[in-house]
Every structure is written in C-alpha cells, then in structure tokens.
Write a structure and sequence with these properties.
The structure holds 2 protein chains of 2 kinds.
Chain A (H helix, E strand, L loop, with lengths): L2 H13 L1 H4 L1 H5 L1 E3 L8 H21 L9 H10 L4 H28 L8 H23 L4 H15 L5 H9 L6 H33 L5 H9 L6 E3 H26 L22 H12 L3 E2 L2 E2 H17 L1 H36 L2
Antiparallel strand pairs in A: 1-2, 3-4
Helix pairs in contact in A: 4-6, 4-12, 5-6, 6-7, 6-12, 7-10, 8-9, 13-14, 13-15
Chain B lengths: L2 H24 L2 H6 L5 H11 L1 H4 L5 H4 L25 H9 L2 H7 L7 H7 L1 H7 L8 H5 L19 H9 L2 H5 L7 H6 L2 H8 L8 H5 L12 H6 L3 H8 L3 H4 L4 H5 L29 H32 L5 H20 L5 H62 L1
Helix pairs in contact in B: 8-9, 20-21, 20-22, 21-22
C-alpha cells in the first residue's frame, strides 16, 4: 500500500471522506453551446485565490501608514526578490477578477440562470460583486500614490453626496473629514480583514447554493432538450469539468504572469495631500461608467441636484439588479422578456460609458 | 435725576453723537452733484470709488481742492478749488503726497517716495520740463481717477499690462516719428521669449519694459549698460561675456547677437557657422575663431544627442518597471551640465565649455551603464517568463489530451 492510499485510508476511517464527497461524484454539468460560460465563475474564484496568496506575501513588507506606505511598496517593487512580480500579479489579478466577476454575472443574467430556485444564488453573487468592487476601491489607495489619493478623494466625495447618510458615510470611510493617513489605515483594515472575511463567508454560501441547485441550463437549450431528449448531454463534474476548469486556471495564470512581465503595474509618485489634483484624474476602469455618468448629468434637473440624482440612480440600479429574479417573477413570463432587453441595455451602457470615460481627457 | 441716570444717558448719547458726526463727514457734495451729471464728469465719481485713493478715504478735494462738505461754497472763492488739473502740473500734484514720506507712510509704509525725483531724471520728465506736453505724465500710465495698486491685475501698471500701457504711445508711429524713435518695440517684444514667459507661462518675474528701462526714471539704456541690464537676471552669462574677447568688440553687448526687444529662445544652432547662426555674421570657416564656433556647436549638439539617447534608454527601462531612480537623477545632472556649457558659450572659449561637458559626460556614462543594466534585467525577466509559459502550456496540453482520452474511454 503506497503512502497516498495509506493517508486516504487513515482520513476515511476517521472522517468518512468518501461519503462526504459522494455528491460531488454524482454532480454533472450540462453540455451545450453555452457550456464555456460555466468556466467564468471558476476563473473568478481562481483570481480570488491568487489575490489571497499574493496579498499575504505583500503583507510581509507593506506598511499601512501615510509616511511609509509608498516607500514600502517601492521597496517591494525594487528590492524584494520577485516583489515586482508578486505586486504586478496582485494588481493584474485584481483587474481580471473584476472583469471575470462582471462577465460571469452578465452570462448568468443573459441565460436567466437566476430564475427559481436559484434566486439566492444570484443575490449572493451580486453581493460578491459588490465585495469585489469594495476590494478594488480599498486596495487602490494602499500604494498611497498621487493617482490613488485623488481618485479616492473623488470617490469618497461621491459617497458623501448620498442624501441624509452621505456625510456620515464619507466620514466613516475617510476616518475624518479628509483623505488622510487615517483613511489609509481604515482602507487597509477593510482590504485585508473585513472584506476577505465577508467574501469567504459569502463565497461559501454561494458555492453551497451552486452545489445544492446544480448547474442551470439556459431556457432555449432546455426547450430543445425537452423536444429532443436524445440531444441531452452531460458530463461528470469530477473529473471532466474540473479538469477543464483547471485548464482555464492555468491559462489565466499564464496571462497574469505574461501581463506582469510585459506590462508591470506602475507605481507613480508619492501622494502629496497639499498639492493640487493632477489634471484628468480618473478612477479605475470598473468605476469609469459611473464617473462618466456623473460628469454628463446636468448640475440641476428640475429642483434636484444632478449629482445627487445620479447617485440615487446608481442606488436604484443596484437595488433593481439585486432583485432581478424577484422582479421577473412579479412581472410574469410575457413581460419578463423586457428584462433581457434591460440587461442588454445595462451591458451596452456600462461598456459605452467605460470607453467614453477612458477616452475622455 | 440721579447721578447714575445722568451718566447712563450720557453714555448712550456719546456713541449717537459720534455716529452723527461720522455720517456728516461721509457726505461729499462733489460726489452728490457729479453723480447726477453725464459722461466724464460722472465717470470720475464711479472710478474714484473703486480706486486705491477711494479705498484709503481720500476725497476729491485732495487733488482738486474746494470744499466737499459745503455745497454752497464748494467751488467758491477761498475754497482753494483748482478744478481741472493742467497736464504739466500733474507730476508735482501727485508728488505732493507721493514724494512726502511723512504722508505716505500713514497709508503704506513700504511704498517708495522717490517717484517724482526719478521722473525728473527720466526722458519723460526732462521733456515735460522743457514744455513738451506730449510726453507721459503719471496719469497716462496709472489712470486718472481709477488708479489701482500695481499688484492689481486690472491696473495698467501691473506687470502683465505694462508693455501694453507703454505701447499706447510707443507704438504710435506718428507720435514716435517726432522723437525719431522706432515704433516697433511692442511688436518685437510680443514675439520675444520674455513676452512668452510673461503672458503664456504667467511668469510675473519675466522682464517687461520697466524691468530694463525703469519705470518712473525711464531712460533708454545706453550701449554700455545693456549688458549690465541683461546681467541683472542673466548673471553668469554677463560675467562670461565681460571676460570674453567679444566684450571689447561689441559695445552693444547682448543685443548684438540677441537683439534688443525681439529676443528669441536661442538653441545650439545659434552658435556655429551654419545659416541662422549668430557667429556666422562675423566669422568664417577659414579662420581659427570660426573653427572654434563650429567646435562649440558640434560639442553641444553631440552631448545633447548623448543625453537624449540615454533618456530614451532610461525611459524604456522605467516603462518595463525597473527601478531607474538613480539613473534619472544622473540624467538630470547631465542636463544641468549641458545648461552650464550653454551658458559658457558666452565666454567664447572651447576649453571652458568642454570642462563642463566632460563633467557631464562622466555622469552620463554612469546613467547609461545603469540604463543598460536595467534593460538587461528587463530582458532576463522576459526570458524567465518562458519557463512558466512552457510549464503552463505543457500542463494545458496534457490536461486536454487527458480529458480527450478520458471521454473517449467513457464513450467506448
């Protein structure tokens, strides 16, 4: 008996692992023309794991104070062995995670995988996206460079414009009236403790729900299968789908390393709170659509402040997005078709405004 | 009535009486009357209110005499009313306050009081004394009633507006013809590097007319003093020029090569014998000094090219994420050496220029060596990428083959 089998037997005798993993062996994944979209969720999970690993390594050298943050990141990039690679992989992986999370969410929305009984899977997924964006916002400030400092200033100012709770929310985020070292410490705590804890919890619920309800089949494919039962195809989750997912993870890792080597993440100059904001300051690409929208909204619409109206609109949009499965069931099947139009409009709007925001001077 | 009550009534009455008196004092019959008039007579009231004199509490009678408190005798006999001030009297009238240190220091202790004395030494003042009414007096530059401090951007004597103010007369061809002065100075200055610094870059320390000619004591700088005037800002250039063989040869100094008003940004092609080079006006290729001019040009150009090449190298390494902070600092030191060498051009001595460039070359060599090392580091990173890429590609292909094999077996 070789060592691996002996260890497996030892664990099985105590924890009955074979029985616990039995449902995974039973789990199947449908095979159809949209099957590749199923890989996106796994790749998002992979980028999150990369974030955890590289983040822990960065923590060994990073110092979360206004005086030392920039210098510590400079030290990681220039002097720590492979520090440049770890930092660049962390930054690129963060962007890939946001991209994959959006792509996964829109693939779920367009294939209507959120419908009964998977409403809560959708809700936990949307919460996970919000958490991912929170990671982006809080992590962006940590190098304490000029771009991050002023982008955070603008971002937290937008949070401060929310009616009634805006000012309180802004002070809570900033740790005072302005973006200072207190904000950096606060964002650091948020980035390395609070958000990871919430994300791991939410991720476990999300994965449990995915396991419980299985993989969704798009309505069009399902109808086709009902008419032609012989066309129904499935593959075992383990090992067939798992190995495909592993291939996706390897390719993602290759892309991350290549991007990090050819396009290392820029550090810029240390933030100087007393200097004026550099011209053309912009947030990261995943907040550009909202930023551009606020820029285009007139300063006053009727009697309401344009910016406040825009922020309320974002809040309403996020609420509607979160409640998408419930809204569709309320509207019924016939009106539910408009939901797809709405989703396509939201996708087109986000893409166009992001491009416009990127091109804008 | 008790003593306490009397005291309290008096306490209340005192501020009231002060209020009444101050209200009476603010009454100005000149303003009340002129405000109802039209044209220039009304404008004087509006302009005075916003002027520095208005802000300091000076009323019309300070300059025009008369009694601003009594409408019946405002301009009457014994009131001292002077009415319209004659042009030739204006400097003395302004000087009655502005040359009086005792009076001026009550309002602005840091304000100079030598303007009238300087004006008397100026061409404007001397010609006025000879009865020439066309020359500038105080009000031509500062305004009449709407006089604002020179620090106010709307003032005609603010640094940004001085050249335009002077040009009101000095660009007037007809007026200047009678003095045999060219009227092109403002047009020339507008095309100069000094004007660009002042108006485009907003550098208020850049020279304008008064920086070289003086303001109240305005005179054209004599030929011998041109280098001194330029040297107040361009100190090293002036020192090197003074020690050069050109000093004796060119009495007009700086203006010989750079012109007086239309001063362009000189580049390295300004030296040498090529077309457009200032040296070519006097030197030729077959004489030793001409060869020196060509060598100066070539050395500067060659060093600039080296700096640019090293900068490109360092930028490429920086874009690749390699730390090149030291090399960037050395590039900046090399640029300083090039600037010093360009200043040394005024000494017209190749050896002195080369001593600056040699120092710069040593720093530049270090920067280039660090840039090369950074590029080697970048290349080694890219080569190192091959290892994970090969491993990942092998894993992906192996997995693909394994999946195909697995599914082929399960199908069969």
């Amino acid at each position: 008996m070789n060592a691996v089998v002996r260890v497996q037997t030892w664990i099985d005798e105590r924890f009955n692992l074979a029985e616990s993993l039995a449902p995974l062996r039973e789990k199947t994944v449908p095979i159809h023309k949209y099957s590749y979209w199923y890989l996106l969720g796994g790749i998002t999970l992979f980028t999150f794991l990369v974030q955890l690993c590289t983040g822990v390594l960065l923590l060994l050298y990073y110092r979360p104070t206004a005086n030392e943050a920039f210098e510590s990141v400079q030290n990681i990039t220039n002097h720590v062995q492979f520090g440049w690679l770890i930092r660049s992989v962390h930054s690129w992986s963060a962007n890939l995670m946001v991209f994959c999370a959006f792509a996964h969410m829109f693939s779920v929305a367009l294939t209507k995988a959120y419908k009964k009984p998977r409403e809560l899977t959708w809700v936990t997924g949307v919460f996970l996206l919000f958490l991912v964006l929170g990671f982006g916002l809080s992590g962006y400030l940590l190098p304490w460079n000029t771009r991050a400092y002023f982008a955070t200033k603008v971002g937290t100012e937008v949070a401060g414009r929310v009616p009634l709770i805006g000012h309180m929310q802004m002070v809570l985020l900033r740790g005072g009236e302005d973006v200072t070292g207190a904000t950096l410490t606060r964002f650091f705590g948020l980035h390395v403790v609070i958000l990871p804890a919430l994300t791991v919890g939410m991720l476990l619920i999300h994965l449990l729900l995915v396991q419980k309800f299985g993989t969704s089949v798009p309505v069009s494919v399902l109808t086709q299968w009902q008419q032609h039962p012989d066309q129904r195809k499935e593959m075992p989750f383990f090992p067939n789908f798992f190995l495909r997912e592993l291939m996706g993870w390897y390719i993602a890792l290759g892309c991350l390393v290549a991007l990090s080597v050819f396009f290392p993440w820029e550090l810029g100059n240390k933030a100087d709170p007393f200097s004026s904001a550099p011209p053309g300051i912009k947030p990261e690409w995943y907040f550009l659509a909202q930023f551009q929208t606020l820029k285009l909204i007139p300063s006053r619409i009727l009697f309401i402040d344009g910016e406040v109206l825009g922020i309320l609109g974002f809040g309403l949009g996020a609420g509607l997005w979160l409640g998408l499965p419930f809204i569709e069931s309320l509207l019924g099947c016939r009106r539910g078709r408009w939901i797809r139009v709405g989703i396509l409009f939201a996708l087109a709007y986000l893409m166009i405004m992001t491009i416009v925001g990127y091109m804008a001077s | 009535m008790s003593v306490a009550r009397i005291v309290s009534v008096l306490v209340l009455l005192v501020p009231c009486s002060i209020g009444m008196r101050s209200a009476a004092q603010t009454t100005n019959v000149c303003v009340e009357c002129h405000a109802t008039l039209q044209g220039r007579l009304k404008e004087a009231v509006d302009d005075s209110a916003g002027s520095v004199h208005g802000h300091k509490g000076m009323s019309c009678e300070t300059c025009h005499g008369g009694n601003s408190q009594d409408a019946a005798h405002a301009k009457g006999p014994g009131s001292g009313f002077r009415g319209h001030i004659k042009r030739e009297d204006i400097p003395e009238l302004c000087g009655s306050c502005h040359a009086n240190a005792e009076r001026i220091k009550r309002f602005n202790p840091s304000l100079h009081t030598d303007q009238l004395a300087q004006y008397h030494t100026s061409v404007h003042g001397m010609k006025l004394a000879k009865g020439d009414g066309n020359v500038a007096v105080c009000t031509d530059c500062h305004g009449v009633h709407n006089i604002r401090p020179a620090s106010d951007p709307t003032s005609p004597v603010n640094a940004l507006n001085v050249a335009a103010t002077c040009s009101r007369c000095h660009s007037n061809v007809v007026l200047m013809k009678s003095y045999r002065i060219a009227a092109t100075q403002y047009a020339d200055y507008s095309a100069s590097v000094h004007h660009e610094a002042m108006m485009v870059r907003g550098d208020l320390s850049a020279p304008t007319c008064s920086s070289c000619h003086g303001s109240h004591g305005a005179v054209p700088p004599g030929a011998a003093s041109v280098a001194s005037v330029c040297g107040t800002c361009h100190v090293l250039q002036a020192q090197f020029f003074d020690a050069s063989p050109h000093k004796a040869a060119f009495p007009e100094g700086c203006a010989t090569c750079h012109s007086a008003h239309k001063i362009k940004r000189p580049d390295d092609n300004f030296v040498g014998l090529a077309a457009g080079a200032a040296c070519a006006d006097c030197h030729s290729a077959d004489e030793e000094s001409g060869k020196t001019a060509v060598a100066i040009h070539d050395h500067l150009k060659s060093f600039e090219t080296s700096v640019n090449e090293a900068t490109v190298l360092i930028d490429r390494a920086a874009r690749a994420g390699i730390d090149v902070a030291n090399a960037e600092m050395e590039i900046s030191q090399a640029m300083d050496a090039l600037t010093k060498a360009r200043v040394r051009v005024h000494s017209a001595q190749l050896a002195k220029l080369d001593s600056e460039l040699t120092a710069g070359s040593r720093v530049l060599a270090r920067a280039r060596s660090e840039g090369d090392a950074a590029i080697r580091e970048r290349n080694s990173r890219r080569k190192g990428l091959l290892v994970p890429v090969i491993v990942i590609a092998a894993m992906v292909f192996s997995l693909g083959a394994y999946i195909r094999e697995l599914e082929r077996n399960s199908d069969s």
